[in-house]
Design goal:
single chain; alpha+beta; Rieske Iron-sulfur Protein; 4 helices
Length: 191
């Protein structure tokens, strides 16, 4: 009688080549499925970090400038920020250009660097010191010595080009991304 155990490979013997391939395939398949499952479970968390639909809708706005007379200022909302639009007079433009090389500017910038068209100044109406909203948009508001904007909270004063001239604000009023779609249509923001 022959011994049946003689026909079986001894315990601890190495797997055959086909057994190794099957084991490697199972490892790769299990790892791949685990990675897909992890990515699928993380995606909802990542997706919650995207802006809400109402915020995306405000990513760009269009403003009709045709009804704004020279010397008037309006405020519109873009991306939950006030945007100051100033239809500047010839005197305001001349005063801003005259101050271009003033050595007392806290954050030096040419007027031409702050506007795309000399008669229209478009800027974010938030003080660069602590985020207050400066006065100067309404008739009768304090505008400071340079006929610009005045932040009463801490005394920052901005000139007619939105450049900081006095006070604790470290830089000029920020400029939003904008473009003129026509002579009377302004788009603020990007798509």
């Amino acid at each position: 009688m022959s011994d049946i155990s003689a026909d079986l490979p001894p315990r601890g013997d190495k797997l055959t080549a086909s057994g190794k391939k099957r084991r490697d395939f199972l490892y790769v398949a299990t790892g791949t499925l685990g990675a897909v499952a992890a990515a699928g479970s993380i995606w909802p968390l990542v997706d919650t970090m995207n802006p809400a639909a109402d915020v995306r809708a405000l990513a760009k706005i269009e403003v009709d400038l045709s009804s704004i007379p020279r010397g008037a200022r309006i405020t519109v909302q873009w991306a939950q920020k006030p945007i100051f639009i100033d239809h500047r007079t010839e005197r305001q433009i001349a005063n801003s250009i005259a101050d271009d090389n003033n050595p007392d500017l806290i954050d030096p910038a040419l007027d031409s660097e702050r506007v795309q068209r000399a008669e229209w100044l478009v800027q974010i109406g938030i003080c660069t010191h602590l985020g207050c909203i400066p006065g100067g948009q309404e008739p009768g508001d304090l505008r400071g010595d340079w006929d610009g904007w005045y932040c009463a909270c801490h005394g920052s004063v901005y000139d007619g080009a939105g450049r900081v001239r006095k006070g604790p604000a470290p830089r000029n009023l920020d400029l939003p991304p904008y473009q003129f779609l026509s002579d009377t249509l302004l788009q603020i923001g990007t798509a």
